[in-house]
Amino acid sequence: MTSKVVRFLERNNMGKAFYLTTTLPYVNSDPHIGFALEIVQADIIARHHALQGDDVFFNTGTDEHGLKIYRKAKEEGKDTQTYVDEYADRFRLLKEKLDLYPDVHFIRTTDAHHKSAAQEFWKRCAAAGDIYKKSYKIKYCVGCELEKTDSELVNGKCPIHPNMTIELIDEENYFFRFSKYQIPLLDLYARRPDLVVPDFRFNEIRAFVAEGLEDFSISRLKAKMPWGIPVPGDENQVMYVWFDALINYISTLGWPEDTANFERFWGIIPSPKGLQLAGKDQIRQQAAMWQAMLISANLPSTRQIAIHGFITVNGQKMSKSLGNVINPMDLVDEYGADALRIFLARHIHPFEDSDFTMEKFKESYNADLANGLGNLAARIMTLAEANLPAPVKIPEVTPLGFPVEFTAALDKYDYNAAADYIWTRIKKLDGRLTAEKPFAVVKTDLEAGKRMISECVVELCKIAELLQPFMPVTSDAIKAAVLANKKPANLFPRKE
């Protein structure tokens, strides 16, 4: 960041802390396009805030405890730690494959510090009188790692994991006094009308809490499920996966030891800038369970939670049994990370379910990238290289220099609208080349033609700046071509 921009930020009291986290996917299968959507959305927001001068803390990682993972490791005949190490490496590879924000933090729930932080959190909830032990019987979905009531089941099956058998658990475990927090949660929702977006998801969680809350189990017998963080003071029990995993949102900041980092990004009071992203199947855990846990531990609540929908494939939910799981790594290998990133941002709805097909993806790639942006950049820079004696001087973009409609869309997590705004500029610039024909004008009026070409180069570079959160590699390639006054290499080879 240049000294000029630094002074600009200081004068305008910018450079505020911004905390951002995805959920942590289970390491029981390879990354799929549903999680790629969440992490790309997070990366776009992280880069957007960094470009505005904010100090960004971007967290992601892997959730590595629980019955589902323990059983999967046993099925494959592997030591559980070896199993989770292998899968964690596959998810860590997403940082490079998807060109994520360079300073993204990657936390694993098997990290030593996370384990100690989870135990400290447990102790604080226990000190508040919110943890007790009892015997119980429940119906349990291993896929969700959640208790299920009869009203949540369809034909005796979990609707999210219909191929899995609902199990009956009958044992003595520790419980969190969730029922105590109905009124505190409703008060929190009333004080913070922007806590959950979109509004219809906020209405969903408000209705859930208003109906009354039941205490939930937060431990398992070690004899039945040894793969978990030990419960403080009870060697016979390990922490239930949800209680453990949610704590990563603050353990990643160094909590409880690193108070300065915790207070900067989480805040003694809720930070004015902070976001958790999650899928619609996790709204209960993120917006109710986790918030109640924070209140119990006497810690600030989450600043904001954005809930996205699912990606379906040809109208069906992705599943291994149907053989329709889309591997984002394969798409990146063939089309490049930026092609996948912009498709997810522009053609997958920010909050609703959206359908993905290879036909739609290829059509968008060829129309929007190969024949669109890539061709436009090549045409303009070919003209510049042939007719301009030196690179065009590009005005420096300050953190407040982005168009209002663009920043407003990203501030509302409307990736579709922000990307569409960029493509409106791309089409307008393409239309100008066709209508004004600078390639012809330069032959009859050199100075007028050079001026038109220079203006097109400046607009191309502005488009590249807007593309930075969405397509960082392409953005950098276009800006490098402008600085060198050279036609870039073929950005997006056409695919048949």
Descriptive account of the structure:
The protein is an alpha/beta fold. The chain has two domains: 3-308, HUPs (Rossmann fold, 3-Layer(aba) Sandwich), CATH 3.40.50; 358-484, Isoleucyl-tRNA Synthetase, Domain 1, CATH 1.10.730.10. Helix content is 49%, strand content 15%. The chain has helices spanning 3-11, 33-51, 67-75, 80-92, 94-97, 112-127, 182-191, 199-210, 241-246, 248-251, 259-265, 283-296, 328-335, 337-347, 358-387, 404-411, 415-436, 438-444, 446-467, 472-484; strands at 17-21, 55-62, 105-108, 131-141, 146-148, 167-176, 196-197, 216-217, 219-221, 230-231, 234-239, 274-279, 305-308, 311-313, 316-317, 354-356. A hairpin with a 2-residue loop joins strand 10 and strand 11. The longest helix has 30 residues, at 358-387. It is elongated, with a radius of gyration of 25 Å. The model is unreliable at 1-14 (pLDDT under 50).
List the helices and strands and how they pair.
Layout: H1 3-11, E1 17-21, H2 33-51, E2 55-62, H3 67-75, H4 80-92, H5 94-97, E3 105-108, H6 112-127, E4 131-141, E5 146-148, E6 167-176, H7 182-191, E7 196-197, H8 199-210, E8 216-217, E9 219-221, E10 230-231, E11 234-239, H9 241-246, H10 248-251, H11 259-265, E12 274-279, H12 283-296, E13 305-308, E14 311-313, E15 316-317, H13 328-335, H14 337-347, E16 354-356, H15 358-387, H16 404-411, H17 415-436, H18 438-444, H19 446-467, H20 472-484
Parallel strand pairs: 1-2, 1-12, 2-3, 7-13, 12-13, 14-16
Antiparallel strand pairs: 4-5, 4-6, 6-8, 9-11, 10-11, 14-15
Helix pairs in contact: 8-12, 13-14, 14-17, 15-17, 15-19, 16-17, 17-19, 18-19, 19-20
